[in-house]
Amino acid sequence: xxxxxxxxxxxxxxxxxxxxxxxxxxxxxxxxxxxxxxxxxxxxxxxxxxxxxxxxxxxxxxxxxxxxxxxxxxxxxxxxxxxxxxxxxxxxxxxxxxxxxxxxxxxxxxxxxxxxxxxxxxxxxxxxxxxxxxxxxxxxxxxxxxxxxxxxxxxxxxxxxxxxxxxxxxxxxxxxxxxxxxxxxxxxxxxxxxxxxxxxxxxxxxxxxxxxxxxxxxxxxxxxxxxxxxxxxxxxxxxxxxxxxxxxxxxxxxx
Length: 255
Fold this sequence. Notes:
Elements: H1 4-16, H2 34-62, H3 65-89, H4 93-108, H5 117-120, H6 131-137, E1 145-148, E2 152-155, H7 156-168, H8 176-196, H9 198-205, H10 211-226, H11 241-252
Antiparallel strand pairs: 1-2
Helix pairs in contact: 1-7, 2-8, 3-4, 3-8, 6-7, 8-11, 10-11
């Protein structure tokens, strides 16, 4: 059963991708579900205002930074096997070996991922990826823009990737205790990201004239940048890298 369900999830995602909406013009954002997305966006803003932001502020001001950093390291560490698997599926064996060695170092020297000597002492930076990136590498279209309850901005392709990531996360098959730890570790990690980037998140969600349009633009532009579908600006800086990579990818990656 453990082997069949991941295969079913991957097959379902693969079958769903051909049905993805096709943009009417090159580079355009396809948003046929805008009315529904805006309702979800309003819900997400309300949830952030009354729940996520207050909890993140309480967490950030009461828990010392070294403790918060270690708990976030655990979440990132347990996400590493997923990256290894997807690098292999993308045909990037060098990155797969890189991520595997990073996982090995942090599992041992890093005390089960509490610390990150792989990056600090060995220069092995994190190369996070998921099945949404794999689908893009396989040539699947990104499809229509979506905003998911609690999970934030996405596309049809990335949503299919998220379903597969959750269903096939390798650490879930190690033991029930590891699976529980993996789920539990994402909560403090998410709160820490929301706390550390509160000014950026607040400016987009609560201070923008049209927060939905701003978030949609930020997400889609950054995804194109990450997948090498478009380059950075003239000074070599991606104006959206902090907004999505550091906030939403960490905040909602394990939803």
